[in-house]
Predict the structure.
Amino acid sequence: MNKVTKGTLAAAAAGALLLGGAGTYAVWTDSASLNAGNVSTGVLTLDAVSTQGWSYDGGDTIVGDDPSTEGAIETATPDIVPGDTLTAVYNVDVVAEGDNIKGSLSLAGIDQATLPAGTTVSIVADGAGAGLGVNGADLTFTEAATYDFNVTVTVDFPVDSEAGQNGTIDLAGAELVLTQTAS
């Protein structure tokens, strides 16, 4: 390549760099207010109000040392044996506000690994009514309201269990948990 061609290429490259990198570049912009207003958030709260205590297979109620409770088994702590099922019905209040709000109940605070083999602790909500849909432990709410319904906690000690003699099923830390679920 001769000197003139090299010089012309060098000058063209320098000119392109000056125009592209060192020149000015302007863009027009504008904005407009959306007037989108506010969005509020809903509410989901749970209050376990009361229980009538534990009962065997939905029958005799187990109470402390209160001889005035007619038809009750008077014991501070029930001694269950294989084949027994204990239930406790809790009356709960749920405040639910929000479009498309749903929830799921669960039981926490029980170490499943310490339960005798085959023993289960479960919950079921009941009492579907105006605005409240219940499917096992899953809840749906059609309107903002306070909902009052029952949750049954069941401890099932299977008949074929040989484990857990002279033991304790610790339910002292049990908690009913209500979690908002996606709609």
Remarks:
- The chain has one helix and ten strands.
- The first helix runs from residue 3 to 21.
- The chain has one domain: 43-181.
- The mean pLDDT is 79.
